[in-house]
Amino acid sequence: MEKRNELYRGKAKSVYETDNSDQMILLFRNDTSANDGERIDQLDRKGMVNNRFNAFIMDELEKQGVATHHIKLLSDQESLVKSLDMIPIECVIRNISAGSICRRLGVEENLDLNPPTFEFFLKNDPLHDPMINEFHIESFGWAVADEVEKMKQTTLKVNDILTKLFRDAGLLLVDFKLEFGRYKGDIVLGDEFTPDGCRLWDVNTRKKMDKDRFRQGLGGVVEAYEEVAHRLGVELPN
Ligand code: UDP
Question: What's residue 156's pLDDT?
Fold first, then answer.
């Protein structure tokens, strides 16, 4: 399989086409961004750690019946994925209050949310990803009702699977974001899962082990990601 042109360059990841129109290559870069890309830093090893971490999580989700775009690891910073027709919506589940929900609703951080909350956001950087609901998604034709239901049910299932997986590793899955796409008539998870796109706290100390370390200038970002990977049993080269 041959790597061709860069199709898309995100804040921390690039997507390349291949000689197979059904498959693409994801390159996990070392870039780390905050505030809609206003602040960008290079963090040594982050691309490699995230690539391996993501492959581990995707394999676990597939084992438990979640259809994902992931095919296989290709190299330290690259993975092969299915090429999906992406839906421009972010699905966010929160088990504990943190981040934007505290700013939007004026609630404290660290409240247990029972049941967990579910939110949709429109993927639109210039508009800062506004919150939307199911009516917006259907009225503007971003997805149809069945697809919305599938995205919601799959995100809830991912929450059940990963809450347990992280809990067994001494970590609280505070919240996370997922995106989906269409592939040969199905709705498939089309996102990476790394500490860049979720919040993870140590269960005993509530120490932040995710991208909030970068957003909040706490330092030790990659060290925390490596610690999370280590606790889950993800193999990382020295
Ligand atoms: N998130 C993400 N990409 C986005 C927006 C949010 O990966 O464009 C993740 C974020 O890392 C967190 C969860 O989704 O785990 C909820 O994010 P929130 O709405 O609290 O926004 P933030 O405080 O991260 O700006």
Answer: 98
